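Recall that a protein's primary structure is simply its ordered list of amino acids. Everything else, from secondary elements to tertiary packing, is in principle encoded there. The following example makes that idea concrete.
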Amino acid sequence: MDTSRAPDGPGGRPTNRLLAYVESRKNLTGSACGIVGLALTFTGLAGAYWPVVVVGLYGAGALIAPPERPPVPVFPDPSTQLDAVRTDYRALCGYLDEVELPPAASGRLTELTELLDGLLAPGPVAEALATDPEGIHVLARAVRQDILESVDAFVRIRPWTRMVPGTEPPERHLEQQLTLLHREVEALATALREAEARRQQTHTRYLEDRGRNG
């Protein structure tokens, strides 16, 4: 057993905490003030109470030092988030390929996945999407939650329809859900397209204004 290791504490290992304090602003400022105290001692101004003066100046410097700036958390950038959505989408497509759906629902699902394919494919569309965190959230929710839940709920309830005839067909709900999801994703694609169009129009106006003023 290794007994040379310092015990861990709530704030980390004591050695690490000591090194962190040595490099802290409080210690550096206090040390600078303590050096001033030593200078006063050498010049004879501190008198017999020089230890108190040095310690007092160190403490005062440590107190007036600005607080340490905590490390800034690093979050994944939007392009990384989009890559994660692509990975999950491939897994979802693998599941959907194994599911047998009624023709109407299958057609709705194909329309939806074709739209998702276009949004997630590498290229200008995905680059525009990567700058829209809310858009990425919409796609992530559709891929990781909504589509899976819609299809899986249909698969789970379908056997009950055969055993209990006369109930509401589950494919009706599935078609409605897929239609609503397609509408939501299509609205996202439209918003992205309009944003790019506004960007192009803004550049046109800029060139026009520059030509008039030039």
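Residues 78 and 132 are 8 Å apart (CA to CA). The longest helix spans residues 170-213.
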